[in-house]
Amino acid sequence: MKDLENAIGYQFRNITLLQNALAHSSYANERWHDPLKSNERLEFLGDSILGMLVAEHLYRTFPDRPEGELTRMRADMVCERSLANVANSIGLGGHLLLGKGEELGGGRSRDSILADAVESVIAACYLDGGMDAAVKFIRKFILVNVPVSKLQNADYKTALQELVQQKKNQTLSYVLVGESGPDHDKQFCVELRLNGELVGTGTGKSKKRAEQAAAQAAIELLFPNA
């Protein structure tokens, strides 16, 4: 269980909460004498915590975006496939407690079971360490995957700034490296550096458009799931 705690980035004071988060209903039904219960109640709580924190994050990050766009982004971030990807990234499937039928039926790799387990782990973190523990997990594994591509007329600079701020001491700098063309039809070229390292280049008919293009290129490079 220590390796899973290390992958999550959180050490539980009450390890039973984490174990319970991994117990699928098929396991609990077959082992009625086991003190571990099904993770369904934890899943219910984790789903609510996740939805609220993602909604708040999108609300604050994109203050000018309409409700419809924010709803689509939230749905993409908390959907079954996205959460299953999170589970796979931390090796959650190998720690699941499954009944014999689910085990034989490939339950360890089933998206629905993996997604439910992620929500259960979020709830376990919350119950063990308070909202700070849940926020830490969600920021580390879910908020880094904001689906910027679903925005209309996306502000890539703002989105990139928010994404890189998930880690401390990150500095973005946009540098104009070239201009070409006549005054009425100029083309600008901008390089974008993260902590001094080139992460994107963009061109456009204004410096602002070139910066947006560079930010978009950086998102595609650094955050391919965004």
In short:
The protein has 226 residues and is mainly alpha-helical. It has 10 helices and 3 strands; from the N terminus they run αααααααααβββα. It folds into 2 domains: 2-145, Ribonuclease iii, N-terminal Endonuclease Domain, Chain A (Orthogonal Bundle), CATH 1.10.1520; 156-222, 2-Layer Sandwich (Double Stranded RNA Binding Domain), CATH 3.30.160.20.
Descriptive report:
The chain contains 10 helices and 3 strands, in the order αααααααααβββα. The chain is mainly alpha-helical. The chain has 2 domains: 144 residues, Ribonuclease iii, N-terminal Endonuclease Domain, Chain A (Orthogonal Bundle), CATH 1.10.1520.10; 67 residues, Double Stranded RNA Binding Domain. The chain has a 3-stranded antiparallel β-sheet, with helices on one face. A hairpin with a 6-residue loop joins strand 1 and strand 2. The two termini are 30 Å apart. The model has no long low-confidence stretch (mean pLDDT 90).
